[in-house]
Amino acid sequence: MAHSQQMITIPNSIYGDRTVTAYCRAGLGAFKLHKRWQVVHVASGMSIGGGRGGDRRTRKGVFAIMDALLQVPVDWSKPYDQIGKDVAANKTAIMLALSTARDQ
């Protein structure tokens, strides 16, 4: 499945919300910020995985991270308040997916 471009809002309580163009797929999005790619939950704009795991310098690398995260049993297309418990329950699987993406 291809990644589609769409505008998403990233919340920031200090500097105000930021609207960015992101490559999105199945509820996750990737956008470039300060020479590095970020992976976010599209519905909430929350960062997934922080700066850990994978090659975040290239678009190909961040797509590998997104593909690894999509293998985790979490429905990323739902709002964050509905998947918060799933994310917490699968924290180990998410960290493992990030480390797997780093090795690719």
Automatic annotation (TrEMBL):
Domain of life: Bacteria
Protein name: Uncharacterized protein
Taxonomic source organism: Paracoccus aurantiacus
